[in-house]
Amino acid sequence: QALVRDLRQVIANDQLSLVYQPQFSIADGGLTGCEVLVRWQCPKRGAVGPDVFIPLAESNNLISGITAFVVRQANKELVESGMLGDTIRRVSVNISAQEFNSEKLMSSLLTMLHQSPQLYPYLQLEITETAALSDLSASVRLLTRLRELGLKFSIDDFGTGYSSLAMLKNLPIDEIKIDRDFIHDLLDQPRVRAIVEAVATMARTLEISVVAEGVETQEQLEQIRFCGCHEVQGYLTARPMEIDQLTDFVRNQW
Ligand code: G
Ligand code: G
Ligand code: MN
Ligand code: NA
């Protein structure tokens, strides 16, 4: 419970930090966007991973405070860097399942958008299929309203839950991210390759972009290209990095 207390403290004091992981077009290698990831560097404990503190935040009613920080800080850093809207035209932020299904999501998002007007037109929300499917018709209504506000949507960790065709049929989404477990098995398992290829084909017809996550090797990049995925995100092309490194990265590449 000391951990929860410290987490509450760092959220209140804006002491979390952000890293950004670039995403690239497989067709031409161009930068398509980036995913924002939150980090907690604790003086006492060292780095505490989001896989630890995000679930903790969810169960202690702290998650909306984290998301508000992430959006506000990304807005600030990306505006200061001068890259927003110029080189960086899509910024993805993770929305946890508990938050997605909370009554308060709409009002807290409206507040965030209001506070981050420069980021707003470029903002994409990543939600998981499990979160979206817990009440599909409610999710359709919610995403439809948010889309009218100009937000974009990505289905994160695609393939790890109940990847339903009803979801693809009904939800107004812009992107799906194929989970890195699939990418990991791509070279060894023909079944996985068949699935990824079929998903990419289907998504293309639906005008949904397919991002392959966790691409670590050149061989995996070649396979996802072969399967028809549109974008790549992974250690091969770029690691998550702080804003200053991102600025250097963009400057050196383009
Ligand atoms: O960045 P890393 O691989 O350590 O992330 C581990 C997990 O934490 C991933 O599932 C990722 O989606 C999640 N995560 C990272 N940043 C955020 C965030 O800002 N909000 C939420 N809700 N989850 C995040
Ligand atoms: O669940 P989500 O997709 O939000 O998680 C994103 C996390 O995946 C990031 O926090 C990042 O640290 C991690 N990640 C990004 N690229 C790679 C990769 O190539 N390999 C592995 N193992 N993890 C990655
Ligand atoms: Mn994600
Ligand atoms: Na993921």
Automatic annotation (TrEMBL):
Would the keyword GTP-binding be found if you checked this record's keyword annotation? no
Which one of the record's GO molecular function terms can you name? Answer: cyclic-guanylate-specific phosphodiesterase activity
* Keywords carried by this UniProt record: Coiled coil, Membrane, Transmembrane, Transmembrane helix
Say yes or no: keyword Repeat present.
no
Task: Show where the EAL domain sits.
Answer: 1-254
Q: What is this protein called?
A: Diguanylate cyclase
Q: Whose protein is this, by species? A: Lacimicrobium alkaliphilum
